[in-house]
Amino acid sequence: MRRTRLIQSIALHVVITAGALLFLMPIFWMLLSATKANNVILSLPPTLAFGDALAANWAELADDLPFLRNVFNSVGIAVIYTLVATMVCAMGGYALAKFRFFGRGAVFTLILVALTIPFEVRIIPQYLLIARDMGLTNTWWAIILPGLANALGIFFMRQNMLSVPSELLEAARIDGASEARIFAQVVLPIMQPALAAVGIVLLLFQWNDFLWPLLVLTSREAYTIPVALGTLVGLTRVSWGGIMVGTAIATIPFLIMFLFLQRYFVAGITAGAVKD
Amino acid sequence: MATPLPAPRRRRRIPWTPYLFLAPFLAAFAVFWTWPIVYSLFLSFVNTRRRPWTFDPWFNWGRLLQDTAFWDALGNTLIILAVQVPLMLMVAIALALAFDSDLLRLKGFYRFAFFAPLVLGAVPYSAVFRLIFNVDFGILNYGLTSLGLPPVRWLTETAPAMATIMIALTWRWSGYNAIILLSGLQSIPRVLYEAARIDGAGAWAQLWHITLPLLRPVLLFCFVLSTIGTLQLFTEPFLITVTGPGGATETLVTYLYKQGFRNFNFGYASAIAYAVALIAAGFSLLQIRLVGGRNNG
Q1: What is the CATH number of the domain that holds A88?
Q2: Is residue A154 in a domain?
Q3: What is the set of domains in chain B, with CATH numbers?
Q4: Which of A249, B19, B159, B243 is 20 to 30 Å from A276 at the Cα level?
């Protein structure tokens, strides 16, 4: 019995290690290529060692695009979007979970229906609204505004807000605290894990979003990182080293975050997956 | 009339409080969800090919039914769906089982290896895959030839291009699904396995008769999510294969993009978008019927 367990364990580890190396390979290759000169990347056999062209690749990338500006756009948009959208979802989720009011059921149903409708259905009118009617092309607001009402975000916040003890809210009300103050000083502190989960998922989604920014950001100065890199990838004569530096810049912050904040990522990903 | 939930008898009434809390969400929701969904449906009945736009209910939908490019894009999308989603979910189930097993050591390392792809954006990983799968200097073809196998024209032949997209998607989303499945596995009561062991059930029997049946609702969730995701596939074919060769990896949404934002035919693009939504809804219902069975509604 012990022996079969040992053999099983070894077999499992052999298979899963092979799989793990295969899965890590693209990330490793990205980091490796970011340090290699372009002619090294294009030559065979491929070298498995880090090169010394990181600075040169960066220079090439910064030559092709205003990449620092693109990074700044990405960071600014992602941070503002995440803070505001998380707060909007938290406030809405709080109202849906902890108050009884006319129209509550209708709003909740509407949100559940919205969850099932693909984004593409909204893309044309949203484009007309942002680009034509509001004239927001090439601004941060073009990216931030349309995503503020996140159906999954408010749904997740609502489910979590249900667990806030109503007695606590009542006690604060009897003490004479205003509703805004109760929300800020009683509800939000209890909800920190849920806020972190929603915040991380929204941040990741916004940071990586491509299709929508591609439509409303048309000037190189206004590009976010994905749009900027996307314009390089399709070119026939490309600086692969430069692109890989850009992808590394886009990816490394989240790889590090993932190492330390895994449980929040997992909580956000499994939001609504397990029925209860 | 609004009253805090638990104490309906309280005298203090603040009927506007929940509305104020909901106001920002509802405002954004009305402008960027409700209105676009309605307007898009309307646009799908409008001829937008020349100004002024005219209401012509059959103009776009009639064209859609006869447009071979649309049906090709749908066909490509369905092929990816039919091959890639089951493949990925099998990988994901295997991963979830491995992570749930007490035989596995070094879980932190393996978790990072398999779950790290899910933080990569579609653009960065598409770029990396385009490099790895490059026909002439990609490391994959180098690996194949050094094993004595012929190189594959990954990005320039139909079947290999499709395979490239499927491999990329599987790499990116297996860990994501494994996380969801793992949370499902962990909610299965351990006593069931103990009882089965006492009754003499082996590992396979336990997998077939306990794990998979009880995992069904979560598996269904993954199935529906992956199906909708595949129907919305855009960045990978747009960047890795550039929808080629010769449109072989054109998908519904890359086609929608071309109609809407290269030809600026908003009416037709709206019809395509609604077609995608209808197909997604149809698939979701079908899967809930087929896989869901009686114990989840």
Answers
A1: 1.10.3720.10
A2: yes
A3: 68-292 (1.10.3720.10)
A4: B19
Nearest neighbour of A121 by CB, restricted to B3, B104, B273: B273
Chain A residues within 8 A of B129 when measuring between CB atoms: 26
Query: Range of A218's domain?
Result: 65-233
pLDDT at B297: 37
The answer to whether A183 contacts chain B (CB < 8 Å) is: yes
Q: Which band of pLDDT confidence, cut at 50, 70 and 90, is reported for residue A274?
A: very low
- Which SS3 state, helix, strand or coil, does residue A100 take? strand
Window 54-113 of A: residues touching B by CB (8 A cutoff) are 88-89, 91-92, 94-96, 98-102, 104, 107, 110-111
Does A175 fall in a domain?
yes
Report A:122-151 residues touching B (Cβ under 8 A): 122-129, 145-149, 151
Number of structural domains found in chain A: 1
**A39 in any annotated domain:** no
For residue A246, being part of any structural domain is answered with: no
The model's pLDDT over B51-83, given as tens digits with 9 standing for 90+, comes to 899 898 899 999 999 999 999 999 999 999 999
At A1, the pLDDT band (50, 70, 90 cuts) reads low
Nearest CA in chain A to B131: A240
Is A247–B123 a contact, with Cβ atoms under 8 angstroms apart?
yes
A11 touches chain B (CB under 8 A): no
